[in-house]
Design goal:
- By secondary structure, this protein is of the alpha/beta class.
- 29% of the residues lie in helices and 22% in strands.
- The relative contact order is 0.09.
Length: 547
Amino acid sequence: MGGGVRRVVLDESVLFGCEDPTGKASLLPAAEYLFRKLRHSTIPTGISHRHDLSAQKVGGLILYELREGIISYETLLCRCASLLQGVAAQYSFDCFVLDASSTDSALNEIQLAWGDIGGSILYLVSYNNDALLPKLRTRDWLIVILGSIGQERADGVDGGPAGEDSSMFYINKVEELPLIIFRLNEKGISNNVVKVGYIMKPSREEDFSKRGAFPIYPSQNGLIFMPLSFAVPISSQLQEVDVVLHKATDEIMSIELNGSSELPNKITYTRGMQELRMYMERHPDICLIDPFNNIDPVVDRLKIQQILLGLEDINKPGCCKIRGPHFLKVDNFNEPNLVQSLSESKLSLPSIIKPQVACGVADAHSMAIVFRVEDFKYLSVPLPAVIQEYVDHSSTLFKFYVLGEKVFYAVKKSTPNAGTLKKLCEKNELKPLIFDREHICAINNPMILLHSLKSLPTGKEKQDLKDQSIDIKLVTDAASRLRRVLDLTIFGFDVVIQEGSGDHVIIDVNYLPSFKEVPDNVAIPAFWDAIKEKFESSKKKPTTNPN
């Protein structure tokens, strides 16, 4: 077993479930979950099947065609092979025939496909094949048998080895397999390795994983990563790790604003995330990246705006300054003194209107750009809302990423200046631009409806701004200030440079961004360093409630 799990073979019996309406077997959702975890894990993975797969998994419709002579047995076998090979190709896996009658040839085929890369081969199957499994175990394969929840295990315990045999394990759910692999891999590594459990929505995890951010073997600075799943008890997973990295905003169900900048908002998370939070409250010795209360300002645009006001302290006379956009909070678009309030807040039109809730709920990105004050009363942007300065910025956006003590940035094309926007909207009488996935514009006042801000054309203004036109030291100082105030380990913010004044305006702040604009060979090591530094600093502090 030296070297841990280096290859994985998944038997088709754990991958396919009940037939779909066409009579064909379909992939189980849990199988797709497992495929996503293994796809970018650097572990060579294969799907195995028996010669008699056709009799078990191809579905009633195809078997009917066989019985009625519509297709031949050879055609049936081809369909079976195509089914599995298609799945294997989709996820860049290999495909093997493996049963008791072909063990030697299958093992030779696997050896040719994967070579000798050390470690063990792990085999996941849903039944105990007395003819096949002993042969595999003599080759030092690790066997994991998938059963049903509640099924009696006289010879083993869930997630653990059967009796004294350290080469056979039982699990009740496919989602438990990453934990088994993690446990087996950590046995042969140094005690100095930091174990990081992570959880976020699948698309975000895919984005990180395919760039090598979550290695299952120790990283260059001594981190090993384990995916967490709410499909199995969270406590059994968290007791394995030193650090928990999460994107809690992916698991928000509702947000109740409290109306005070001094108190946290009431955020309701999914059951799984709430269980994770409760566990962390009882185990403050585990490093949490980041504490739930620290994320509160990031989900509230008003709180972020108020925090950005504090950047005034780092500005120096005679130099360009960094600031947040001018803003105004509104609870009603029909306020009688709205025009005066806009003027007092240094806001002119066009302005952009955003819900106060910044993320985590469906309508957090329902926004509008308004050109005429009389059109405010027609808006259906969720209230309370923040009216924010629309900054002319030569269509250039600077995306900054803070990973621990390191700061990176990338330059992107952005939305047009206000004058260009007005020209685009003149043919529609300067009606508001509505950005909304749910089509929430008022019925009695048709507006220009777009999917999101990204739907706007990028500006064609002459690009006078170059990288050196941004004051990197100024923004880096602001990043350090925000890191201390927010107490976040990994976050990002967007900066635009106002034409004329040269003001550096921070227009958005977000938690745990993907930082995909930064080259992987730079960003991923910095990502690991940020996690390691946060863990080491947490060990030096007195243990307190992380929430």
